[in-house]
Structure prediction request, 280 residues.
Amino acid sequence: MKTRFIIYTHLSGKTIYFTKSTKKASVLYESSYKDKQWTKPKKVVIATRDIPRAYGDFVADAGWRFKATEKVGDIYNPFVSKDGKTIYFSSDMANEGTRGGRDIWCIEKSGKSWNYPTNISQNINSLADEDYAFVDGDKLYFSRKENGSNKLYVAKKETDNWSNPELLDERYNGDGDNFNLIVKNDNPLFVSTRTPKNSWDIFYLHYEKPKDEQIDTVPESLPEPPMEEQIKKQREYRYVMFQFDYDKRDFKEEYRQDLNDLLETMKDFPETTRFMITGH
Prediction:
């Protein structure tokens, strides 16, 4: 039997959610990392809801008490919120709130199970196919299939709803299909078939954060004296021949002050200046 897996890992890295798709259905599973291994996958328990019986129904007319339930349809491409309490996914279930085609739904965690799916917004879903939801802070990224190709959209969270989505620019939406956008370290990654071979490739957009415009205060230092002054000082210095006692290495005391003057003069030159000392 041919199957297809779409895997999403929760932020903690200890739980993965994925759908297993066959010709019959696409079901949501979960697995946890325990004792250095992943547990056997199990179906995610999602609550059903009662279906009210209309008047004139045969069962109602017969006076029988019958509780019917509306099951969850196929689930595709799940995404888990950072707090692990909401799972977003796409489905073509013909339940209340659907706009037609494949819509984006969500389920909320309730104890050990999940509440019945809710269509996230009439602003997001349309008569086209919406898929690959990804929530980053107050932004919802998703793809919408129109005119035969998938395009990437973004919407912002409002008080109790999502704003009308906006089509992302050409950096995201090249020729062909563009879908499955995620954000990693403030940089988006997504799948696109814009390459000449029309293959599914992963694209990455890198954004550099603007540098802080504030300039650190640097203590002011005295400017280097102009080169003309340095040369002038050099020319004005009175050179003196320093002498030692005969056949000795002792410096004559009478030249000590001249030596100190020379040292002070040398300090006026740039650090890169080289001096040569000779003797005979």
Summary: The radius of gyration is 38 Å. The chain is about 10% helix and 35% strand.
